[in-house]
Amino acid sequence: MRVFTYAERPDLTARTDEVSSGFAEFMGHDEVAVRHWGKLRTELPELQLVLWDDERDVVVGHARTMPAREADGLPGGIDDILETWFGDGARPEPDVLSAMVAVVDRRRQGEGLSGLLIESMRDLAGRAGFSSLIAPVRPTWKDRYPLIPLERYARWTRDDGLPFDPWIRLHTRLGAEPLEVCPASMRIEGSREEWEAWAGMSFPDDGEYAVPGALVPVQFADGRGVYIEPNFWMRHPARKVVT
Question: Is residue 209 part of a domain?
Answer without folding.
Answer: no
